[in-house]
Amino acid sequence: MTEPRTLLAQYVASGSEDAFGELAGRYLNLVYSTAVRLVDGDRHRAEDVVQTVFADLARLAKTLSPEVMLGGWLHRRTCHAAATLMRSERRRQHRERLAAEMQALQDQSGGDYDPIAPILDQAVNQLSAADRQVILLRYFEGQELRVLGQALATTEEAARKRVARAVDRLRKLLRRRGVAISGTSLAALLSAQAVTAAPTGLAVCVTGAALAAAATGSGNLLTVLEIMTMTKLKITVCALVVAGLGTTLVLDQRALARLREQNRALQERLGRYALVEQDHQRLSNLAAQSSARAALPPDQFQDLLKLRGEVGLARRLNEENPKLRAENTKLRSAAKEANVAARKEPEDPAEAAFQRETKYRQNFGSQWGMLFITAASKNNGQSPDKWEQVAGQMRPEELQLATNDFEIVFHGRLPLDGSQENVLLFREKEARQSPGGEWFKVYGFADGRSEIHTEPNGNFEAWEGPRLAHP
Question: To 5 degrees, how large is the angle CA 424–CA 430–CA 436?
């Protein structure tokens, strides 16, 4: 088996994708299991952390020392990425609740892993560099004592003693945080549960996204991750997102331009057919006065037939126009989201975390908006009055977010022709203030799109008023 340092050197020297892919696969479980613990078991957020960590590895590989212990570097990088991702109000509330629960915990010497998982990585980071290296090699990378002794330039027996001392020091740190456990039980728990198997196919996704980010810059990586989250793509197709990202925005812009040209031509044709409708009405009245074809001169009768055919075409075009408007609206929304996704992330970590959370809520609103429209089309236009009516395709945590943070403001029949596309379906209950001081709210509209609106003073009533449907 090729050593990690050799694989890293191959990637740095030649940019070998195979070497980086093998390296990512070697450490994937370590990074993923650490991320799962640090994001409170949310596996979707853990996958985002894994993407970020391996993208950082691809980007910073040339700056790493040849003597670096890659497992330790990846573990600390994972802790940093997870801490940045979870820096939000929800995370703070969870930590307060977790602290209250930890105070009530009794002796955990029976080996219960649940109270240890949230604080394990923090305790590991408080160990000395030597002890942390031993714990990571033995339990996180799963190295045998013989291999561990070789890595530490010592014997197998000496490595065993060093592991025992490191476990004892880790046990004392955990005890200070309210978790009492014996050294033997702690070692058994670390051996059995310190590393969680990552989802099948995540290694391929991580490798593709990380290499793409290293080649094109970190800005495009953010776009890839946001699009993956917005569309809820499965792991098995994430490589297609990386490959197709460069063409998606171009195709959307071209399609939008073609649609605008079609709408302009359609409006011109509808104007001409309005005049045709007047002539048709005149001749129809003349034809109604006679019960026989002979009542009209032959040339006027032929004109009547021709005009009727043209008016029928005009009516069909008029029926298709709402569909074109609806499609136009969706393309505008897609182009707007694409432009927002391409913006550079703020340097302030707190502001960046707030924007990611707001973007997540906007994507969340788009999914619910489409579910509302689908449900209305199946129920004679009646819009759902409760989130539970359309929650069959959503995860429990998404339903909880909807019921806790959003409210439905539209009640009644929903026109399916796009005539009320600017009417609000639902909105965030309370505005959220960014670290920069601006106030944000996310809204869902009757055409299925979701938008973010900001106000400097937190007063949204003037903006919401014209967009609320009144009975």
Answer: 110
Partners of 386 in beta bridges: none
Cβ atoms 166, 190 nearer than 8 A: no
| Residue found under tokens 């075409």 | 313
Domain ranges for the chain, please list them: 4-242, 245-334, 345-471
433, β-bridge pairs: 439
Q: How far are the Cα atoms of 85, 157, 334 from residue 356, in angstroms, in the given order?
A: 8, 49, 18
Longest dimension (CA), the chain: 115
Those residues whose C-beta lies under 8 Å from the C-beta of residue 191, and which sit 6 or more positions away, are 139
- Which ranges of 87-216 does DSSP label H, i.e. alpha helix? 89-103, 117-126, 129-135, 145-151, 156-176, 183-193, 202-216
Contact between 438 and 456 under an 8 Å Cβ cutoff? The reply is: yes
Task: Let me know if 372 is exposed, middle or buried by CB neighbors in 10 A (0-12, 13-18, 19+).
Answer: buried
136/166 Cα distance (integer angstroms): 10
Q: What is the pLDDT of residues 241-286, one digit of tens each?
A: 444 444 444 445 566 677 777 777 777 776 666 666 666 666 666 5
Q: Is the pTM of this model over 0.85?
A: no
Of the candidates 85, 87, 122, 86, the one whose C-alpha atom is nearest the C-alpha of residue 102 is 122
Tokens of 444: 């869902």
| Cα 276 from chain centroid (whole Å) | 51
Q: Which two tokens stand for residue 53?
A: 């960590």
Q: Convert the pLDDT of each residue in 38-69 to its tens digit.
A: 988 889 889 999 999 999 999 998 899 888 88
Tracing tokens 């011109």 back to the chain, one arrives at: 268
